[in-house]
Amino acid sequence: MGNDRVYNFSAGPSMLPLEVLERAGAEITNYQGSGMSVMEMSHRSKVFQKIFDDTQAKFRQLFCVPEGYKILFLQGGASSQFSAAPLNLIGRTGKADYAVTGNFSNIAYKEAKKYGAIRLAASSEDRNHTYIPTQDQLQLDPEASYFYYCANNTIYGTEWQYVPDTGSVPIVCDMSSDILSRPVDVSKYGVIFAGAQKNMAPAGLTVVIIREDLAGHELPYTPLMMNYKTMIDKDSMYNTPPCWCIYMLGLVLDWLEAQGGVPGMEAIKHKKAQMLYDVLDRSKLFTCAAEAGSRSDMNVTFRSVSEELNDKFVQEAAAAGFTNLKGHRNVGGMRASIYNAMPTEGIEKLCDFIQDFDKKN
C-alpha cells in the first residue's frame, strides 16, 4: 500500500478508504474556498448546513431510506442507544423482547431492564455465541413494545442472515458493524442505529434511522439529549453535532457510490470474506470460531491449535504489515475485521500469509 500504510484489521475504529483520507487531507485547512477547516466552522453556517443536508440526502439515497423515516446524526456512540431505545419506545406496553447473541446485545439487554419488563426472546450463550438463532427459536411476545437484536456480533464473528419476523412488533436493530455492507429493507424496522467507526466515518458519530410515528412517546424521565422527538424536531442540531464526522461520512458515501453503492459493496465484501473463510477451512492449523451459516462477512474469528501458535501468528503478522489481528479476550485466537474500506488486496495478502504460516508450522 502507498505511504507505508499497514493493513489494519482493527474491529473499530477501523480503517477508512485511502481516497477519502486523501480528499479530507486536501481540504483540511481550507474547505472549498471557505478559508477554514470543517473542524472550525459553525454548525449554523450556510457552508456546514450544505454539508449536513448533502450527507443526509446521500445516506437516504444509498441506504434506500423510505419516506416516513428520519435520519439523525447524533453523538454518544451506539452504546447510548442501549438506553435511548427503551426510554423512547417501551412506554407503549412496558415490555420488550431481546435476542442476545453477543457482548453488545447482552449489554443492551441489561440496560433495558432499568426501564421495563424485558424478556429474553433468544440467546446463543449456550454455545458461546457461535451461532445465530433461527426464526423458530425466537420466543416472541405479541404485546412487546419492540424486539431488539444486533445484526452483526463484532467480538464473536456472527451475523444475522435474515430479518426476524415479529408481526406488528417494531424491530430495533444495532447495525454498527455491518451497516452499508449489504442492502436493507428499512421498512421492516422501527429503529436502526449504528456507530460510525467501522463502516462510515471516524468515531464520534451515531446514525439513527427512526420511523417517525414511533417518536414522541418517550418515558417522562427521558434525558433531553436522548429524546428522539427532540432530535427530530431540531434535525439533529439541538446542540452542536459531530461536524467533522458528518463531513467524513459524506466523503465515505461518495466513495461507496463509486463502488456501485450498497449492492456493489455487498458483492465485494462477500467475495473478500469467502476468500478468507475458504483458506481457513482448508487449513491444518486454523479453525473458524463461528458456525457455518452464521458467519460474519465483517469479522472473521479464528484460532490455531494452541495459544502459543496464536501468539506467534499475531506477532509475525504484525511484522508483515497485518495489524490488530489479536482476538477479543472473550473469544481468544484471532479476528480479522474486514469492513468496507479493507481492500481486496489486503485479504489476498493475508490469505497468502496464512497459507505460508500453515506450511511452516
Please describe what this structure looks like.
There is one protein chain. The protein is of the alpha/beta class and 361 residues long. Helices cover 34% and strands 16% of the residues. The protein has 9 helices and 14 strands. It has helices at residues 18-27, 46-62, 77-89, 103-112, 228-233, 243-258, 261-282, 307-319, 344-360, and strands at residues 7-8, 69-74, 95-100, 117-123, 147-150, 152-153, 158-159, 171-174, 191-195, 206-211, 287-288, 299-303, 322-323, 334-337. The chain has a 7-stranded mixed sheet, sandwiched between helices. Strand 3 (95-100), helix 4 and strand 4 form a beta-alpha-beta unit. Helix 1 packs across helix 6 and helix 2 crosses helix 6. The two termini are 27 Å apart. The mean pLDDT is 97.
Give structural attributes.
361 residues, alpha/beta
Write the layout of secondary structure elements.
Elements: E1 7-8, H1 18-27, H2 46-62, E2 69-74, H3 77-89, E3 95-100, H4 103-112, E4 117-123, E5 147-150, E6 152-153, E7 158-159, E8 171-174, E9 191-195, E10 206-211, H5 228-233, H6 243-258, H7 261-282, E11 287-288, E12 299-303, H8 307-319, E13 322-323, E14 334-337, H9 344-360
Parallel strand pairs: 1-13, 3-4, 3-5, 5-8, 8-9
Antiparallel strand pairs: 2-10, 6-7, 9-10, 11-12, 12-14
